[in-house]
Each structure stands twice: as C-alpha cells, then as structure tokens.
C-alpha cells in the first residue's frame, strides 16, 4: 500500500548518492550517511511552509488566552457551553488549533518509510524500490565506523548472518555505534521538546500536563525502541532533531513568544530613539523649571516687546524735549496695568497729599 512512498524515499536517497559519488567513494559508509542527512534536509525544506503556519497558529492561540480565561470564568462548570464559545471565538479570529500538528504529521510516514527500506536491506539481495542490484548491495554493505547502516543493535535470521559475514563487521562495532547514537537521539529529542515549550510560551491545565509527558516520555520511549532501529534510522533521527533545534533557535530569535522578556526587549529596540537635543530649550529661551507641587500654567504670558518699544520711545521723546527721562508726573507713565504693576509701584495717587 505504501510502496509509492518507499520508492519516493529511496529515489531521493539515490539522487543524493549520485551527487556525492562524484567526489566520494560510492560504496563508502560516509557517502550513504550523508545521503541520509541530505534526505533530512530535503524533507525539512519541503515542510518549512507548514512549520511557519504552525508558529503563526501558536502565536494566535497565545493571543487568545486572556479571552479564553474570561470565557472560563463566565461559563464556570458549563463545559459544553464553554467549548462552544471557545470554538466560536477561534472561528471568528481564524485560528485553527490543529495547525500546530502540521509539520509533525508528514514526518511520521517518512520515518516509517526509511525504517522499512533500511530494514529490508541485506547483502546480495535483489534491487529494492527503484534501486539496482548493485546500488542495493552497496547500501547494505556501507558501514559507519564498522557498523552497516542497515544493521541494528539486535538482529536475527538470515540478515544477521549476512551482515556479520562482512569483513570487519562484528556485534561489538555495531553495538558501540548504536550505544552512541541512541543517547544522542534521546538527548536531542529532550532539548528539542524543551525548546518547543519555550516557543509555545507558558500554558496551564491539561496542556501543561501533555507538555511534561512529551518532555520526558518521548526520550524514554525512544531509548527503549532505539535498540530495534537500524543505524541509518538512528542517524536520521539525530540529524532531524539537530535541524529542528537550529530552526527553532532561529525562529525564537526572530519571533519571541508574546509577553516574554525577549519579546519586550525586541519591542523596546524597535521603538525610534529620542534625540536629547529635541528636548533641550531653543537657543536664547529660558528653561522652565516648575516648582514642586505647582500646577502647570494654562495661560500664555503676554509679550513684552511692545512695552519695551514704548518705553524706549518715551525716553527718546523726553530727551528731545529737554526733559529728564522717567515716569510722567502723574506717576502712571508706562507702568504696566494690573495688580502686579500696582504692587511694584505703589498706589497711583502716591505723592498727592493735602497741603495743610
């Protein structure tokens, strides 16, 4: 049923093997190991648009969390009404919760296809899935540090006999390479899952329980099943996890989770810097320093330019008539009107006293 998928995976590996064979040994284990690594790169590049959709969906779900919390308070124990309200809110905002699974779902059949292809490889076997007899035999005999990529920690039957009959291949070399790749697979899975938790931001309730289950459950399950995986599949998983880790590191740098310290620092850095010179008073202007506790002034002070011109005009006219410059005889002169002028110069009728 899945022969078309097995053939597609085998075809991609064969094309990369042809490219690498131009400068590497076609039968070498390094050539086939790099072919598996480049298979990972090909698959992840094809799935990158789905990864972007996953990140956008997670960001949208995080933005809806405050409103979902309000709905939970509003409906209380009415789970059916709350779920309908949450679904309506998600539909209104165009958020699809299943979009977070988009990059994971296509990788499952790809992993199973590679597992199936490498498990069926054996020396002196007929061509498999568009591979020629020669290419199939090369892949079965290609070893990585003495461990053929089609071998596994535990083998049985005719395949065990055929692989152990190869020159320089022993259970010791196979299990040494497997015992290095299995912990690497588990560690990279753990750190990748922890990075996914950072990317999705803080969660509560069942989501937090699921995250913890995946954080510790996936590495433990892989540690158990890794003893049955071929060496090539272990290599595929390590390279795939390394790619995921680097890709998520890049996304977290460019698109930090909302509300995180990195997001606040990024939003602060995006604001335009204020030039201190624009806040300084203009040349010739007296800086205003309001007194502590004083209310800010609402009225604009009147200009004194006209008053100064008037005073200079009066002085000049007085000098021309031979009279001394100064206030007029009645004491009013050019004195400013209002309470401030009267307070500075005294009453207007000062000096006019009754003669006795």
Automatic annotation (TrEMBL):
It is found in: Cell membrane; Membrane. Residues 294-335 have a biased composition (Low complexity). Pfam families: 60KD_IMP (PF02096). Residues 32-252 form the Membrane insertase YidC/Oxa/ALB C-terminal domain. InterPro entries: YidC/ALB3/OXA1/COX18, YidC/Oxa/ALB_C, YidC_ALB_C. The chain crosses the membrane at residues 30-52, 174-192, 213-239. The keyword Nucleus does not apply. Signal peptide: none annotated. Residues 261-356 are annotated as: Disordered. Keywords: Cell membrane, Chaperone, Membrane, Protein transport, Transmembrane, Transmembrane helix, Transport. It is a multi-pass membrane protein. NCBIfam families: PRK01315.1, yidC_oxa1_cterm. Belongs to the OXA1/ALB3/YidC family. Type 1 subfamily. Required for the insertion and/or proper folding and/or complex formation of integral membrane proteins into the membrane. Involved in integration of membrane proteins that insert both dependently and independently of the Sec translocase complex, as well as at least some lipoproteins. Aids folding of multispanning membrane proteins. PANTHER family: CYTOCHROME C OXIDASE ASSEMBLY PROTEIN COX18, MITOCHONDRIAL, OXA1. Interacts with the Sec translocase complex via SecD. Specifically interacts with transmembrane segments of nascent integral membrane proteins during membrane integration. This is Membrane protein insertase YidC. It comes from Blastococcus goldschmidtiae.
